[in-house]
């Protein structure tokens, strides 16, 4: 296991370098000039040229890229072109909100998805199974921005049960939980649908196995058969889906953060893209990419914990 973790961490280096290179080149080839945006609409050509020289934008792209990577390796993600604030500082201020939202969303998705999937498998072809199928299709199809707007309209404006927007309180307080409920449901609905379908398929495959029939023949209670025998052996594909979806949720909070006015990394990326703030976009994407790879590593480790038969050579 230690060898697996070490190898995966080594694989992280070229992967992140590739991501950073593609992102860097893409941003610099896109139309627009950050120096012009920083200088403002009334700036002269001389002022714009001075800003470009100060930012090093006149250097060849590869020179700029290697300079950026050298700074990153020394723990410096650069400074925002727009606000001159440290990129690392700006991200860390907003990062807790994004993580809290992603964790709350994956909890909602897992509870709803796994529970629905188990019930659908046990009650195969019943009305509950058909209802869960329709619900899963709806969850995947409904856009986040529409669902979030409807939840705000019904539960915040009309019923006034939850705050309209923002994450201001600590997530473990009553107010913090109230602030997280609607965004978590909005972001986690699509993932819940995927988890539900995967759980149902995995449970149906396991529930037909001979050892399940043997357990029932021995008089084992049905609850124990489902939770101890079926569920544990069906967890491998479910864990994969949950882990991948958590990685996607960390990088996919942009729309939800915009709808609920959450000051997170996703919203920061939108503002940085609009302002052509290269360094802020690069720092945010690198953070999300790193977390995604680490989540995949955690999923691989959980495989061996859940199913001891799995061994990594």
Automatic annotation (TrEMBL):
Compartment(s): Cell membrane
Superkingdom, taxonomy of origin: Bacteria
Primary localisation category: membrane
Pfam families: BPD_transp_1, BPD_transp_1_N
Domain ABC transmembrane type-1 intervals: 95-303
Listed CDD domains: TM_PBP2
GO molecular function: nickel cation transmembrane transporter activity
Signal peptide (from-to): none
Membrane topology summary: Multi-pass membrane protein
Keywords carried by this UniProt record: Cell membrane, Ion transport, Membrane, Nickel, Nickel transport, Transmembrane, Transmembrane helix, Transport
InterPro entries found in the cross-reference section: BPD_transp_1_N (IPR045621), MetI-like (IPR000515), MetI-like_sf (IPR035906), Opp2B (IPR050045)
Parts of the chain that traverse the membrane: 12-30, 101-122, 134-160, 180-199, 234-255, 285-306
Listed GO CC annotations: plasma membrane
UniProt xrefs under PANTHER family: DIPEPTIDE TRANSPORT SYSTEM PERMEASE PROTEIN DPPB-RELATED
Family recorded in the similarity comment: Belongs to the binding-protein-dependent transport system permease family. OppBC subfamily.
Complexes and interactors: The complex is composed of two ATP-binding proteins (NikD and NikE), two transmembrane proteins (NikB and NikC) and a solute-binding protein (NikA).
Protein name: Nickel import system permease protein NikB
Source organism per UniProt: Paenactinomyces guangxiensis
């Amino acid at each position: 296991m230690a060898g697996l973790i070490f190898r995966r961490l080594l694989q992280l280096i070229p992967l992140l370098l590739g991501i950073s290179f593609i992102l860097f080149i893409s941003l610099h080839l896109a139309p627009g000039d950050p120096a012009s945006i920083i200088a403002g609409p009334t700036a002269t050509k001389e002022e714009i040229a001075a800003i470009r020289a100060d930012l090093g934008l006149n250097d060849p792209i590869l020179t700029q890229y290697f300079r950026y990577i050298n700074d990153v390796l020394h723990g410096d993600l650069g400074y925002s072109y727009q606000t001159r604030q440290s990129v690392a500082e700006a991200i860390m201020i907003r990062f807790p909100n994004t993580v809290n939202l992603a964790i709350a969303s994956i909890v909602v998705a897992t509870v709803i998805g796994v529970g629905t999937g188990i019930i659908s498998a046990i009650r195969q072809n019943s009305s509950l199974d058909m209802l869960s199928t329709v619900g899963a299709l709806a969850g995947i199809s409904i856009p986040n921005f529409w669902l979030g707007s409807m939840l705000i309209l019904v539960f915040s404006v009309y019923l006034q049960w939850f705050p309209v927007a923002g994450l201001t309180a600590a997530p473990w307080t009553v107010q913090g939980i109230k602030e997280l409920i609607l965004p978590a449901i909005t972001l986690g609905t699509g993932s819940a649908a995927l988890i539900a379908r995967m759980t149902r398929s995995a449970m149906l495959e396991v529930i037909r196995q001979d050892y399940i029939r043997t357990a029932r023949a021995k008089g084992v209670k049905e609850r124990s058969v489902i939770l101890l025998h079926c569920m544990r052996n069906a967890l491998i594909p479910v864990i994969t889906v949950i882990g991948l979806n958590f990685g996607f949720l960390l990088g996919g909070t942009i729309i939800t953060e915009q709808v609920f006015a959450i000051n997170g990394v996703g919203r920061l990326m939108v503002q940085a893209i609009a302002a052509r703030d290269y360094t802020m976009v690069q720092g945010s994407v690198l953070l999300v990419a790193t977390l995604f790879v680490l989540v995949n590593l955690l999923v691989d480790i959980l495989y061996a914990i859940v199913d001891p038969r799995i061994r990594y050579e």
